[in-house]
Amino acid sequence: MSQKTKIAITGASGRMGQMLIKSVLETDSAELSGVIERAGHDWVGQDVGTAMGGKALGVLVSEDTAQVIAAADVVIDFTAPCATLGFAKAAADSGTAHVIGTTGLSDRDIADLNALAERTAIVRAGNMSLGVNLLVQLTKKVAAALGEDFDIEVVEAHHHHKVDAPSGTALMLGEAAAEGRGVNLADVSDRGRDGITGARKRGDIGFAVVRGGDIVGEHDVMFAAPGERVVLRHIATDRKVFSRGAITAALWAAKQKPGAYDMMDVLGL
Ligand SMILES: NC(=O)C1=CN([C@@H]2O[C@H](COP(=O)(O)OP(=O)(O)OC[C@H]3O[C@@H](n4cnc5c(N)ncnc54)[C@H](O)[C@@H]3O)[C@@H](O)[C@H]2O)C=CC1
Ligand SMILES: O=C(O)C1=N[C@H](C(=O)O)C[C@H](O)C1
C-alpha cells in the first residue's frame, strides 16, 4: 500500500483553513499531520476537530510552526503575507513542499518566495480553482485575438471580510490579459478611479472592486468595444473549489524538485 501524503494546514481557524482541513480529511491519499494557528490564539492546544465544532481528530492545534512543518511532506497555507513568508522559511529549512494561496503579497514578498523556492517546491496561485485557471488561459487568448479597440476591465466582488484589493485572482487575470496583448501589466494598469479622472486611456487594463456580504468570489473580464462586448465570467459559490485545488496542488508538490510553480504546472494547462 502506498504511503499517505502528510499535509499540514496553517491558519486552522480561518475560513480557508477550516475548509482545507475538511478537504484533507476527505482525501484518501492524504493524512492531516498537523495544524498551526498564530501564537496566543484561543484554538492553540485544543483538538482541531472539537475546535471546529465536530468530533476529536487527535490533532492538536499548534503554534510551533517549525515543528509542524518539519513533520509534514507539504504545508498548505492560506493566511496573510507576513505569516506566509515565515512559513516559507520554515518549509525551505526542512525541505517541506509549500502550497501558497495567500493573496496581497508584495513584489518583494514574491521575490523572497522565489529565492526560497531554490530549496523546496513552492506552488503559489491567487486562485486554486480549476475554473479560474481555465479562465486565465481564455483571457490570454481573447486578449491576443482582440486589438486595442476592446477596452479590458477586470471586475471582482468578494465578501466584506476581505482585506486586499484587487483580489489575487483579478491580478492573475490582468496579468493574463497583458501577456495576451504583449504588454507589461505595470505599464497599463488603472487601479484607482475617483473624481475627474479624464477619459479612459487606450490600452489600459482597468480594475474595479466590490466588497459586500458573503460573496465567495466573482470575476469578470470585460472586453468592451464600440457596439459590442465580450465578457468572460467565473463565479465561485463554495470555497471547496479552492481547497480541492489546493489538495491537488499539495499531492503534486510533494513529488516535485525545488522550484517555483503555479496551478498551470499542477493542472497541465
Ligand atoms: N488562492 C486561493 O484560491 C484563495 C486564496 N484566499 C486567500 O487566503 C487568505 C486567507 O483567507 P481567509 O481564510 O478568508 O482569511 P481568514 O481571515 O478567515 O483566515 C486567516 C487565517 O490566517 C491566520 N493568520 C493571520 N495572520 C497570521 C499570522 N501573522 N501568523 C499566523 N497565522 C496568521 C489567522 O489566524 C486565520 O486563521 C487570503 O489572503 C485570501 O485572499 C482565499 C480563498 C481562495
Ligand atoms: O479572500 C478570498 O475570499 C479570496 N481570495 C482569492 C483572491 O484574492 O482572488 C481567491 C478567491 O477569489 C477568494
TrEMBL record:
Catalytic residues as annotated in Swiss-Prot or TrEMBL: 158, 162
Binding site for NAD(+): 11-16, 37, 101-103, 125-128
EC number(s) given by UniProt: 1.17.1.8
Stretches assigned to the Dihydrodipicolinate reductase N-terminal domain: 6-128
Recorded GO CC terms: cytoplasm
Subcellular localization(s) per the UniProt record: Cytoplasm
Record's signal peptide: none
GO terms of biological process kind: diaminopimelate biosynthetic process; lysine biosynthetic process via diaminopimelate
Pfam families named in the record: DapB_C (PF05173), DapB_N (PF01113)
Stretches assigned to the Dihydrodipicolinate reductase C-terminal domain: 131-267
GO MF, any single term: 4-hydroxy-tetrahydrodipicolinate reductase
Pathway: Amino-acid biosynthesis; L-lysine biosynthesis via DAP pathway; (S)-tetrahydrodipicolinate from L-aspartate: step 4/4
Domain of life the protein comes from: Bacteria
Annotated keywords: Amino-acid biosynthesis, Cytoplasm, Diaminopimelate biosynthesis, Lysine biosynthesis, NAD, NADP, Oxidoreductase
Record: residues binding NADP(+): 38
Catalysis performed (reactions): (S)-2,3,4,5-tetrahydrodipicolinate + NADP(+) + H2O = (2S,4S)-4-hydroxy-2,3,4,5-tetrahydrodipicolinate + NADPH + H(+); (S)-2,3,4,5-tetrahydrodipicolinate + NAD(+) + H2O = (2S,4S)-4-hydroxy-2,3,4,5-tetrahydrodipicolinate + NADH + H(+)
CDD domains found in the cross-reference section: DHDPR_N
Record note on quaternary structure: Homotetramer.
Physiological role: Catalyzes the conversion of 4-hydroxy-tetrahydrodipicolinate (HTPA) to tetrahydrodipicolinate.
UniProt similarity note: Belongs to the DapB family.
PANTHER family assigned to the protein according to its UniProt record, in alphabetical order: 4-HYDROXY-TETRAHYDRODIPICOLINATE REDUCTASE 1, CHLOROPLASTIC-RELATED, DIHYDRODIPICOLINATE REDUCTASE
Protein name per UniProt: 4-hydroxy-tetrahydrodipicolinate reductase
Organism: Falsihalocynthiibacter arcticus
Gene: dapB
